[in-house]
Amino acid sequence: MKRWDDGAELADALDHGLSPQEWERLLTALGRTPNLTELGIFAALWSEHCSYKSSRVHLTNLPTSGPRVVQGPGENAGAVDIGEGWVAVFKVESHNHPSFIEPYQGAATGVGGILRDVFTMGARPVMLLDSLRFGELSLPRMRYLVDGVVRGIGDYGNCVGVPTLGGEVDFDPAYNGNILVNAMCVGVARKDKLFFARAQGAGNRVIYLGSKTGRDGIHGATMASDTFDETAEQKRPTVQVGDPFTEKLLIEACLELMEKGLVVAIQDMGAAGLTSSAFEMAARGGCGLELDLSRVPVRAEGMTPYELMLSESQERMLLVARPQDVQEIFAICHRWGLDACDIGEVVEGREVVAYWKGELAFRLPVAPLVDAAPRYERPFQLPPSPSAVTLPSFSGRNFSEDLRRLLASPHLGSKRAVYQQYDQTVGAATLAGPGGEAALVLVPGTRIGLAATTDCNAFACSLDPYAGAAQAVVEALRNLACVGAEPVGVTDCLNFGSPENPQVMGQFVAAVQGLGDACRALGVPVVSGNVSFYNETSGQAILPTPTVGMVGVVPWVLHRPRFTLRDGDLVALLGPVVGQLNGSRYLQLVWDIKAGVIPHPDYQGEKTAAELVRSLVRLGLVAARDISDGGLAVILAEMCDEIGVRVSIPGDVSPASFLFGEWGPRYLLAFPERFQEAVAAAAEGVPFLIVGRAEGDALVVVHDDEELIWLSLVELAHLREQGLRFLEET
Amino acid sequence: MKVEVRISLKRDVLDPQGEAIRRVLTRLGYTEVSAVRVGKLMLLDVEGEEREHVRARVEEACRELLANPIIEDFEVRVL
User: Fold this and answer.
1) Which position among A95, A97, A219, A703 bears the catalytic label?
2) Which fold has domain B2-78?
3) What is the arrangement of strands in the sheet containing A570-574, beginning at the earlier edge strand?
4) ipTM score for this prediction
5) Is B8 an interface residue toward A (CB < 8 Å)?
6) Domain boundaries of chain B, sorted by first residue
């Protein structure tokens, strides 16, 4: 067994996940042989997780600027102007690998990590969203994972006092070996009170704040960049345990330190712990740091510099402060019951130097580690264009039975069993939570509504990553429109298999292109994000899953949006009368047809329709839902809560395409009869058709006087709960 | 047969509960307590004749349900 200060060699580099070429590059960059600690630092910073070495060249295709952008990608989180001197600060990040190994703690620490990314910027977190993907629920292990992940998210978010208001849950056998846990946090800050991770001012002190450092999560960053194989078992002890109560104290302490102007720079210790926070703060600030590792508070005995630098113990921050403020900082931290100590100073030059027990532990130049990290233009093979499938014959089809199957599936049924475990009202600012189309909260002390949604139809992305990713962006636009919000920024979490596989890399390239084109077409910048590669087990990659997190604004909230029918409401279809069945969930789930063409979005049509829906919702005239996964019939079922509905399909229209078709700017609107004239007038120029009325105690669809669907409200409610009922059984 | 199962967090895993108890002990004046780790003690009544067989079965149950082997250690004693 080697010691932390022994010289490293090629075999050690391979153990740390570096390639032989990267080891050569390291030797050239450093001009000497590193010791084991230095190698560990290089390996962490050069891992896919920290360096984005395979994705960076493609991410430059994303639009990242715009009049509202205050901070684009490259900081802990992005920030956009939302008016009245406020900014929204947000990011989505994956915690896939840890959650597969230990679902409860993995998901919980994922939430903790994304919260820190947001409050590090000086923003108070106001909501969380989670985009989850699991494998087949028939596997007992998968049910255990779903249960653990959901409880982990709920417990952490609930303890820390931030509501969990949205997200998605979906299932596919492709996630059997790699589940996805993408957590998004949205916070608000005053525009002139944002903080950055740029160490500055020689002589300033480096302060360590938060929990003590233990041996948890060592190698976490390299683990997250590894594919799983049978040795995954042995990687287990690297799981971290989260402590949401300490996180809450950390939030309050950091926001107070910032409010009092005591912070020069701040960064959380996330993946690769002290290593990434120290080197990235030095790199961004163009300065050096001198650290005394013996002063780092530890909770395990005999920790070496290697372990101190690479531990991923949770709930820790690194901040830079002026020497005269240090005592006040300590006093504030003490009042919040947190450990804080001075572990070093900012120095001239561009080196990070660390001492341990009076000896030099390492001396590393910042530039080769951070700025000169490897960049790869991995070979890629773009996915073939999918061909259209010939539709089966629907004549004489029992559509009631088809709708039953869709609603009873975990894909399209209610997600109540998941989100009821989340606190949705803490903070007393929630206007719309889970179960609607998008989350909406009031910015404290204002009438500004801040909305957020996450979207990704991974099934569509598996057929056509370009069109699928673009469709995720327009779906997010539609979701926001349903709460009256206009999009102001996007954050993305790009989950894929191994970038070393040209086919997977091709999916990635196509998806980024689709994402970029859609965001450009809608004029919405991408301000933060995360890439998660190597989501594959024994060569089996997940579906390409580019999760889109979109944030929107309602400048002055007058009405709380609603999503369900009220007695006597008229129901109108806005947009094309029929959707497309190719690539629909109906064909996938009912007919087992996993093929088809995914159309490219009609951006102009989407923008026009979204603007219209937005204004109707803002005025409180309509309840709106967009027609996406599962088609109109599934959305109609979601709108039936206390009252039934009777819908007539126009005579010349194919019932299957009307009921189950997807894609395009289609919405269902519900409104009292007295608003009919106003709504119809506003909708001029956009296809608009009254299709039914809320009445009775069943969902009824008729076509040519024939009753195609009849489902009682009681049965509807029962069916929609069926898919995830196991979460409530013990 | 009476079987005792002790479950404790693995050595290097953070124990927020233990840490919270330690803090309060310090506040109450027990400043000599420098660390607290919280675990679980379970007492099982198990039918069986052969001690080793009973132990093996309970250990199996520990791996499957009673303990989370990813972050916890367990110790089985047949009394």
Assistant:
1) A95
2) Mth169; Chain: A , (3.30.1280)
3) A623-626, A667-671, A570-574, A688-694, A645-649, A698-703, A706-712
4) 0.81
5) no
6) 2-78
